[in-house]
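Sequence in, structure out. First:
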Amino acid sequence: MPRRACTLHRSGAARLPCGRTLAALLCAALVLPAAARAEGWSVDATAATDKVLRGLSLTEGTPSIGVDAAYYWNSGFYADASLARAKPVPADSATGLFVGGLGYLQGGAGDWRTQYGWTHYGYTDAALSSFDFDDFRVTEAYRGTIFVSAGGSPHARMVDAQGHSASGPVFSADSVVRIPLSFGWSADGSLGYFGLQRPYHTGFAYGSLGVTWQIGQFQFDTSLIGTSPGAKRRFGSTADNRLVADCVWRF
């Protein structure tokens, strides 16, 4: 949010960590509301052909591996942290991206669930600390099949294809539809918008179509991710349409 389409962890939570394929790539580190869950840990490892956040590659189209851990309380609160390979500046070498967050999953009767979340994105290389940012987001989920989220960052810095650096408030809105199929398969689609009016006086749309196969502790995702022409003009190959695949191992 994304998590892959809507991966069900042992706790029953559907999560969308950053850098995974399918609709998950749109919602980086997003924990999607679901029905009641058991208190406890959820830990997994991921190997992906790329790491994408809101339609933009964070690894210049190269593979990324990472680990993720989350803890859920019966009260509805949760904490999440992950570490993965990233390459935020094309001219620089790869580094680690730490993503940590806190949030609250609102319960209640009916088919809808609401999540309020804060997520911090930080790079392990101190020289890249100016690219760190915080994201505040609200998500609505319907029966674990339809997800809508909106949020933003009060201050985010980016570098475009020409090497121009700009910073300022940004926002994004995302929608995800997941369709369960048979034999562990599911299909999903997503559509989002990334508003960069303050830093770049522009914005762009992105989306994905993909499939997921889940068997035992493993999950395999494949997704075609696309961005609008405005993204390609501003961010070059980082915003190219791409096919992304990953494997997730849940402990």
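Second:
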Amino acid sequence: GLVSMATIILSSKKDLYGRKGMILAILSIGFIGCLVWGHHMFTVGMDHDSRAYFSAATMIIAIPTGMKIFSWLMTLYGLKLKKDDYLFYWVMGFIFMFTVGGMSGLV
């Protein structure tokens, strides 16, 4: 999406690092995301089996999400930073917030 495009523009590279992995990660997040809707229903009384399923599925979605973060960071690796490159700060801020938000949702 937008962050991937921003990292390509910022790094002046042709493609993202691990382009095929990024495509698979996006597709798998979309698929698994359809299966984990129940983890938002934590105030409703659910069976133990349902809670175990939704907890496991929520943790599994972290794998393709980690692949996305790794691809973004490896695309930016070796970047020659200019002083007024605000796009870099925006991308790094997004990656930081995305990581912290994901980790606080898993813990």
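Remark: The first helix runs from residue 2 to 11.
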